[in-house]
UniProtKB/TrEMBL annotation:
This is Phosphotransferase. Residues 217-261, 265-451 form the Hexokinase C-terminal domain. PROSITE patterns: HEXOKINASE_2. One of its GO terms (biological process) is glycolytic process. The keyword Transcription does not apply. Belongs to the hexokinase family. Its EC number is 2.7.1.-. Pfam families: Hexokinase_1 (PF00349), Hexokinase_2 (PF03727). It comes from Oryza nivara (Indian wild rice).
Length: 455
């Protein structure tokens, strides 16, 4: 009994410290909107970088022709092509292929990596060639989704600031990744033109906008988190260039670094890379402080995810990412929480758990995931606030396109995000705001932006 009281104390403290009442979320949303303004004001004006994407034309749905996309983000990359049939037919046909990147190429040289990518792209294009003819003399247009930090000065160029995730290829840092890709394609004899360089958030926005002109933002909740939205070009004081004809500019927020007096770094509380890790730490505390798991070997509970991550990038994909396990436990609907028991046993070597303990573990998952989803909603509310679409004077319809494995597969996260957004906007404003799952925008979005840039 003593043990259970101690354990309850740990959970109660967690519950209290992770609480996200609507008043706090409103402060977070307002702080996000404020940081957005500061980041647009001047370079370095905010921890939210508010980078110009140089995408000033989003797809309208009227594009036609054949366009290609390349999506490099995590451990896989995808090549795809879309055949667009104008405003009546939209996407007539699309095909894609996923290729995993051999781990040794993730820390080799730039020309090896881009050579491999161009080679795979070349194979795909050659195989898909039959039955699709390019108008004479017209180059194939390609959009490139590259979800690493780049500094852009035009829509079709960008220098790599640094690698993230499992990549570290020193000689590519500071280089223009489009030029590297273009060089590799030339070596392969591939006659393609890179029309746009974007990231997954911009791609998600573009992919959804193609079908629905009320889409105002693309948001990712996957391994990491990011958002992109459409800003009025004349509302960007830091922009020194000529204003585009469209009057619009897509801003790549890079909001993972958002930080306010109300909470620590945003990405660490809201993305798949970290949620499992947070739960692990809570379970370790629970074990050490209460002894509720009995006299177990805590070594698995003590393993920080990124220790393994460095040692072996191949293992990292499963071991580092505990979030799918958290989701599986959280959604366990068996009467005796069998899945929770299995996960605790398999992943953490915690055996012989009582039903009470399992319930406690589910509650811990719930506290951590709920906080994540509610903060995610606050971020989205911040964008709507910045755009004046959070229920103020003009109730135009606004659609937020969201993608990423966490949003797609973690049902309770997604439901909580959506209901919290409703709570923050209020009943009236909620009527004009919709959240849409934009499946796989990051790949097709690049091809669609290539299409809209080349019109
Ligand atoms: P990326 O963000 O690397 O481009 P995804 O958008 O596919 O890739 O997101 C993958 C991430 O989504 C994983 O790292 C994991 O954190 C999370 N995820 C995937 N499946 C699940 C799941 N079933 N439950 C919870 N989270 C999941
Ligand atoms: Mg992705």
């Amino acid at each position: 009994v003593e043990v259970e009281v101690e354990a309850e104390k740990v959970v109660a403290e967690l519950r209290e410290r992770c609480a996200t009442p609507a008043s706090l979320l409103r402060d977070v949303a307002a702080a996000m909107a404020g940081e957005m303004g500061a980041g647009l004001e001047k370079e370095g004006g905010s921890r939210v970088k508010m980078l110009l994407s140089y995408v000033d034309k989003l797809p309208t749905g009227r594009e036609d022709g054949l366009f290609y996309g390349l999506d490099l983000g995590g451990t896989n990359f995808r090549v795809l092509k879309v055949h667009l049939g104008g405003s009546k037919k939209h996407v007539v046909n699309s095909e894609s292929r996923e290729v995993s990147i051999p781990p040794h190429l993730m820390s080799g040289t730039s020309s090896e990596l881009f050579g491999f990518i161009a080679g795979e792209l070349g194979k795909f294009v050659a195989e898909e060639e039959e039955g699709t003819d390019m108008p004479n003399g017209k180059k194939k247009e390609l959009g490139f989704t590259f979800s690493f930090p780049v500094r852009q000065r035009s829509v079709a160029s960008g220098t790599l600031v640094k690698w993230t995730k499992a990549f570290s290829i020193d000689d590519a840092v500071g280089e223009d990744v489009v030029a590297e890709l273009q060089t590799a394609m030339v070596k392969q004899g591939l006659d393609m033109h890179v029309a746009a360089l974007i990231n997954d958030a911009v791609g998600t926005l573009a992919g959804a906008r193609y079908y629905d002109e009320d889409v105002v933002a693309g948001v990712i909740f996957g391994t990491g988190t990011n958002a992109a939205y459409v800003e009025k070009a004349n509302a960007i004081p830091k922009w020194e260039g000529e204003l585009p004809n469209s009057g619009d500019m897509v801003i790549n927020m890079e909001w993972g670094n958002f930080y306010s007096s109300h909470l620590p770094i945003y990405e660490k509380l809201t993305s798949g890379m970290y949620l499992g890790e947070i739960v692990r730490r809570v379970l370790l505390k629970l074990s050490l402080q209460s002894g509720i798991f009995g006299s177990i070997d805590n070594s698995k509970l003590k393993t920080r995810f990124h220790l393994r991550f460095k040692a072996d990038p191949k293992i990292s994909v499963n071991v580092a990412n505990r979030t799918p396990h958290i989701s599986a436990m959280h959604h366990d609907e068996t009467p005796d929480l069998k899945i929770v028991a299995e996960k605790l046993h398999q992943i953490l070597e915690i055996t012989h758990t009582s039903l009470e303990i399992r319930k406690m573990v589910v509650e811990i998952c719930d506290i951590v995931a709920r906080r994540a989803a509610r903060l995610a909603a606050a971020g989205v509310a911040g964008i709507l606030m910045k755009l004046g679409r959070n229920g103020g004077i003009n109730n135009q319809r606004s659609v937020i396109a969201i993608d990423g494995g966490l949003f797609e597969h973690y049902t309770k996260f997604r439901e909580c995000l959506e209901s919290t957004l409703g709570e923050l906007l209020g009943e009236e404003a909620s009527k004009s705001v919709a959240v849409k799952h934009a499946n796989d925008g990051s790949g097709i979005g690049a091809a669609l932006i290539a299409a809209s840039q080349s019109r």
